[in-house]
């Protein structure tokens, strides 16, 4: 399994970069489509994505480097080598959320509505992006056996791709990238089901995103062998708990305070 997608002279293009770019491009076009349906200003979207993409990538990288500073403090030049992996999705989400709140307030665009528009395409983008971990042979679970992977009826290329050396062992590993990717896919479907209902409260899709992804990542992180740690605890699990609680609070707020879509305009930004 090679992490390299293509060589063009001195230029090397990695699968990780291709998949991240695919997720962003898909998200941009799908969000544009949804904003048209909700009569939201499209000129706002172009400017929003222009700033959002680098901010999310920077946030994801800074977050990862902070919790792996013991390594990067001795390998400073590798801080910028994002094509080798090392983008923490929680850092990207946090940076994106902060920027989105700031930018929507500045441009007088309804924040929760924009969150709702983005939510399903964010989580399907995460499902796509996780395959970058597969090609980089990272973010895997504990050791397992060939027979176990075959019992899951996985395609041969996945089974073969999970057979490599890490931590000094050449063996098969649990494909936690796949587990999380499938969890995100289910979250995407659930949000679309909620969106298709005749009456959906503003903020509800965002709440579902936080709850579903928080729960998914909490259990996946229990298996991962390369978790970022803080005081002996897995950072992603702590953040996942915060995400679930935030989603529950947002759901309650949505039910009690927000208007329905396709009804009167919500007054709460």
Topology order in helix (H) and strand (E) letters: EEHHHHHHEHHEEHHEEH
Q: What oligomeric assembly is this protein in?
A: single chain
Number of helices: 11
* Class by alpha and beta content: mainly alpha
Biggest sheet details: 3 strands, antiparallel
Q: Low-confidence stretches at least 5 residues in length (pLDDT < 50)?
A: 264-269
Q: pLDDT average, as an integer?
A: 91
Strand order of the largest sheet: 3-5-4
Q: What's the gyration radius in Å?
A: 19 Å
Report the end-to-end length measured between terminal Cα atoms.
47 Å
Number of strands: 7
**Approximately what portion of the residues adopt beta-strand conformation?**
5-15%
Helix content: 55-70%
- Global geometry: globular
Give a structural overview.
- By secondary structure, the protein is mostly helical.
- Helix content is 64%, strand content 9%.
- It is built from eleven helices and seven strands.
- A three-stranded antiparallel beta sheet has the order 3-5-4. It has a two-stranded antiparallel ribbon with strand order 1-2.
- Helix 4 runs antiparallel to helix 5 and helix 10 (204-223) runs antiparallel to helix 11 (235-257).
- The N and C termini lie far apart (47 Å).
- 35% of the residues are buried.
């Amino acid at each position: 399994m090679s992490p390299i997608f293509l060589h063009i002279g001195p230029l090397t293009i990695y699968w990780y970069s291709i998949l991240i770019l695919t997720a962003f491009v898909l998200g941009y076009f799908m969000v544009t489509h949804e904003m048209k349906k909700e009569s939201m200003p499209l000129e706002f979207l172009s400017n929003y994505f222009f700033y959002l993409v680098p901010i999310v990538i920077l946030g994801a990288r800074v977050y990862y480097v902070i919790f792996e500073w013991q390594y990067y403090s001795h390998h400073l030049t590798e801080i910028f080598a994002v094509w080798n992996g090392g983008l923490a999705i929680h850092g990207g989400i946090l940076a994106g959320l902060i920027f989105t709140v700031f930018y929507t307030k500045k441009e007088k665009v309804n924040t929760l509505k924009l969150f709702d528009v983005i939510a399903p395409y964010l989580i399907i983008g995460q499902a796509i992006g996780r395959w970058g971990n597969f090609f980089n042979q990272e973010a895997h679970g504990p050791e397992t056996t060939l027979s176990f992977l075959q019992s899951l009826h996985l395609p041969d290329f996945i089974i073969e791709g999970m057979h490599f050396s890490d931590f000094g062992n050449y063996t098969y590993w649990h494909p936690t990238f796949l587990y999380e990717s499938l969890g995100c896919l289910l979250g995407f479907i659930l949000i679309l089901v909620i969106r298709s209902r005749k009456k959906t409260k503003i903020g509800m899709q965002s709440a579902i995103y936080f709850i579903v992804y928080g729960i998914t990542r909490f259990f996946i992180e229990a298996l991962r062998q390369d978790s970022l740690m803080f005081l002996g605890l897995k950072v992603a699990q702590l953040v996942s708990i915060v995400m679930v609680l935030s989603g529950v609070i947002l759901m309650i707020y949505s039910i009690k305070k927000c208007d329905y879509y396709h009804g009167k305009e919500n007054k709460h930004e």
